[in-house]
Target: JAB1/MPN/MOV34 metalloenzyme domain-containing protein
Amino acid sequence: MNLMYTPATLPHHGEDEAVTVLLDDRPRRAMQALALSSMLFETAGFLVGPRPYKLPDGRYLVHATDSIPAEHTICKEGSVTFTQDTWRAANDAIAERYPDGSVVMLSWLHTHPGYGVFLSGLDVSIHRNFFTQIWHTATVLEPHRRTGGIFGWRKNFAGIIRLRFVWHWR
Ligand SMILES: [Zn+2]
Model:
């Protein structure tokens, strides 16, 4: 558990979001660097961490402690496609780094170089089809403006809302 977080650094608490997300500095920097490495084509990765647990207020605490770049993707201007090899490589990387099974995939991440922070219709369908836990999130980084968003479910899967993502310059 990273003890650097104080209540003031917790993401905004809407009353109906299903999760609160903590993102450690190391995966944040790694994913920001990944985003900045590709200013034309989209790029992608995954945030991982311990299996989320329910807080007393009913939200799940999602603590991203590590990240994995996505491999074997088809990255283009305006789209990124995950292949079967993408999922296999990510699961292999998690199993290799954490043979005790202590972390799970928490969020998929992709970039929108120069065109804003949102989930496209295709992004929403990827999220619905492959990330079926209520604590799964989708992260979008925009390297041109150095900004981003984490998208999570409302309670009871009642829609998807944007949570805060703070781009750190370090
Ligand atoms: Zn997208």
Residues 1-10 have pLDDT under 50 and may be disordered. The longest strand covers residues 104-111. The two ends are 21 Å apart (CA to CA). The chain is about 20% helix and 30% strand.
